[in-house]
Amino acid sequence: MKSFRDTPPHEGSARSRSSWWNELMIGARLSVSGGRESAARTLLTAVGVGTATAMLLLAASLPTILDEAGERSSGLSFFRNAEHPPPPPGEETVLLGSALANADHRGTPVTGWVIEPEGDQAPLPPGVAGFPDPGEMVVSPALAERLADPDNDLLRRRLDHPVTGQIGEEGLSGPHELVYYLGQEDMEADRADTVRMDAFVDGEPYRPDDPVILLLGLVGTVVMVTPVVVFLSAAVRFGGQARDRRLAAVRLVGADRAATRRIAAGESLAGVLLGMLLGAGFFVVGRPIVETVPIDDGVFASDVVPSPALAALVVFVVPLLALWVILVAVRGAAAEPLGVVRRTERRRPRSWWRLLLPALGAVLLYAGLGPYMLVTGAVNWTVLVATGLLAVLFGTTAVLPWLLDRTVRVLPSVPLSLQIAGRRLAADGDGPTRAVNGIVVTVAGAIALMTLLNGAEAHDRDGAPEQGALSVGARTDDDPYQRVDLRREPRVEDPVTLFESEPAIDEAVVVRRMYATAGDNGGTQVHIADCAALARIADLPHCAPGDAFATRETEVEPGDVTGVTSTEPPSTWTIPEYTELPSGVAGTRYGENSLLITPEAAAGAEAVEEMRRVVLVRVNEKTPEAREQILAAAAETDPTALVEPTPAHADHTALDTMKLMLLAGAIACLAMVVAGVTVGTVEQIRERRRVHAVLTAFGTRRTTLVGAVLWQTTVPVALGTAIAFVFGTALGAVLLHAVDLPLAFDTAEIVAITAAGAGAIALTTLLTLPVLLRTMRPDGLRSE
Amino acid sequence: MTRPTPSTDPATPEQRTPLLAAYGLRKSFGLTQALSTASLSMEEGEIVALMGPSGSGKSTFLHCLAGVVRPDAGRVDYAGTDLARAPDARLSALRRTEFGFLFQFGQLVPELSCLENVALPLRLNGRRRRTAEREAARLMERLDVGDVARKRPGECSGGQGQRVAAARALVTRPRVIFADEPTGSLDSLNGEKVLRLLTDTARESGASVLLVTHEPRVAAYSDREVVVRDGRTPEIGGGR
What we know:
The complex is a heterodimer of chains A (784) and B (240). Chain A has 784 residues and is of the alpha+beta class.
């Protein structure tokens, strides 16, 4: 046999490279041959890594999604090109006007266009294969689906035109967009609501630059990935005792500490690689599901493509992140040749530095979001705010061990189950804390996002009338009438009868409206209708045919010759004598600058017949589908009518959906944490088999041991949820302040998230019960 | 440097340079003193039995001599290195190349096959898998456990398991083999077989063996016996 001197020890770098590979491979070999525990650990690791990979790939697709949506909205932003003078009519031009503006279907906006090509070379709108003939329409697939739904009779009545084609993806900003092009003839190019175009794609692509979206994305990614990391760190600890034995054995035959760590990492490598494959699979399978998410117009599956650089980063970062988590997870156990020495000497959590991380986060957020904006540039800003958010969110996790340590020291010793739980937590609070930190970050992040969304919703709600006023004037809550502006000659003889035939419409009146100007005095809104109709607009002291009334701030005087801008060609008209209404008279819904005139008083105004008609309808809101009935009647009267948006129909669907998804996401994250905590607790129970057996042998009741496990989970989770509540609310308030939104809380949602955390405790305890009860069986005792 | 001819003669420290020598080792675990003043000197190729009653500190003494446990005081000289103060990397390298271990319970990795277990130290030393397993298989044949090469340790009998563990201890052609109650879990027949194989192979390769046991019949395989009692050794080997 060869002497040892013939085989000198290989040391240093000469050994390192090949042995690194060898050690990783040894670890990988151990992971696939370690029996049920190894298989379970590999599977759990794979699920964790797979979920993280899929989430990050989805996040890596966001730039593509936004870019693609931006490209499409650029092509569709017809009226944004005001700086370009309209082209002269020709073979290559098309006329486009809006149809039934402000319409929606059950809360989802419906965009309609009337379209007429002026020549054979007229450009087609994006995604449209051919121009619809007059009276026919092409529709988006989502609208086609709704039109085909037997429950949507009113929608079919509203869009009672033959569908001759569907709009392709390139003409839509998302799969849920409801849009149609209605063929029209004899369109008038010089109307305010009509535009002549020779091309559809023009201008820079629109890129959303909303800080709320950026913040949501940042917080969302952190919040979603953190529980996965927690789950992963719990998963790699599964079967810890067997792994400890293995590591001790390899240490005995000469593996140094670094090599042992590499073998441990190699053991998880198979799970990581499998997880990445799973993640790619999850992503591919999940892509079509993205289309079903009903936020705004939705996202096309074909747009969900990770940007190559970010995808490469994910492929590079995920294994490193996973290995880092694994190495951190096993660092507490020093594998020595005679076994694993656990570093049981618990350092008492000190308080002073615990607040450093959240404080640092607060400083960074202040620098990024505060009044002085200490950084410039989008990248710097994003990095600063992201770091600040991460520091605050992860800072919450530094507070928990300290708080837990303080709490278990003052826990009462009765009942016995609480005493056992307290002692266990005092002896080893790191395990539960680690797992519960996942809940803390998730719940804190979810509460912060909820607060942000509630603020956005409150802002929308408060701002709705103002925004509406910019278009057609939103109806206020105390105004019983809704308004439909007819922009073309009605297609029906008697609009009033048509509207009043709808079950939801109690009453309808038609007024004529124009904007009259008089020299340098400015102008005024003129409403012409009979006394009955005028009485609905304002509280008139009296009214007879031939009367005219003016609100206090009317800027025209009797005898002024006004130019009527709403007629074509512009005409003139002399303001008649009027009675001035006292200030504060109700009916100033059109402002304090209005003229209310009976037709007789307007006699002689040739322009009257040219004036636009406005239909005021009094609606019984309690009637089902009242809004749909108004829209159907409006479309029947004038397909290009402008329908008044109402506060009730202000579109909060997207925010509501986001909140719902956030809640669902938070609960899904909690489920992941529950899985992680359960794995950890099961492992802990298995490690304590002997202790349980002894306690049972001494006559300890089962309920006491079960209670101890319950307390053991409850105390850290309750503390964690409380910390999450405080930090989450504070973070949400900071974010709201940053984006200038009002502070708004929805207690019900916060309670729901907190309740989900409590449910997590109950579920964890329930899931661990079978294992716990097994350790207390008589046969288990005999084996002891 | 060549290996000296194996000898059954007790070592004479005054005449030869000891291969492994310990001086005044002390080791406590908490308040329990396991070793108070333990010393020993071993020559190359020598088989020494550490004997003593349970709890006398003989296993701790072996662990200190092997560099697996660091003594609180004293020194352990091996080939010019003080194992009591050597860094972990150096100790690991020694375990990988010059030391072999055989304990009462095989310390085999249950997830690996017997062949992979025996090849493990070679692979940790950077040897390619095939080469390592070829060498391991050869040694296993010699120790009469070639037929269990593909089995897991849990599928082998106790005697087979210990012979596999012996093969793993010997596969790196170590200079010193540390055996702690290697037959403690075996019946007498299997115990004899394992001991004979271990000592024969050691003598054949010129390796030294430090054998911890409390059984005189096991100690009979050694060249020399050292009794440990209350953490002390009566014999002070070597002298520096």
